[in-house]
Amino acid sequence: MTTTPHISVQNLNVHIENQHILKDISINIPNKSVTSIIGPSGCGKTTLLKSFNRLLDNIPNVKIDGKVLVDGENIYDPSVEVTHIRKKMGLLSQRPYPLPMSVYDNVAYGPRIHGIRKKK
Ligand SMILES: Nc1ncnc2c1ncn2[C@@H]1O[C@H](COP(=O)(O)OP(=O)(O)OP(=O)(O)O)[C@@H](O)[C@H]1O
Ligand SMILES: [Mg+2]
Hints:
By secondary structure, the chain is an alpha+beta fold. The protein has one domain (5-113): Rossmann fold, CATH 3.40.50.300. Helix content is 21%, strand content 29%. It has helices spanning 45-51, 82-88, 103-113, and strands at 5-16, 19-30, 62-70, 73-74. Strands 2-1-3-4 form a four-stranded antiparallel beta sheet, covered by helices on one side. A hairpin with a 2-residue loop joins strand 3 (62-70) and strand 4 (73-74). The longest helix has 11 residues, at 103-113. It is globular. The model has no long low-confidence stretch (mean pLDDT 91). The protein binds adenosine-5'-triphosphate and magnesium ion (MG).
């Protein structure tokens, strides 16, 4: 059975501080199915997942090449707005991963990007 991939990673290379972390990764992840990524500690699983909603952008000295298509849209295209990507892509991380803003704003981030502004 052929299904259109929900996420398509094409020749993704990630360098952090001159270390080549993800090396030419290409993978199609189908919609409505469970996909697991396995590998030894430090092989780059979390880095790959972070690349799916542009969480790597905040790392100093990071260089990202290649494409990550979500529903056919390259999320690394300069015209793409990060909030639009993060609305569609949730990530439950192994360790707390606050964005560079206050704890309050981190907690409020999810509801806010979905248009909920009432404090209650
Ligand atoms: N912010 C960062 N700065 C420098 N190096 C980093 C950073 N994030 C990840 N790395 C390096 O990238 C490599 C891959 O790390 P990553 O956390 O993606 O591995 P992992 O497969 O998720 O490991 P684990 O199974 O332990 O969770 C490691 O060598 C790690 O040290
Ligand atoms: Mg990890």
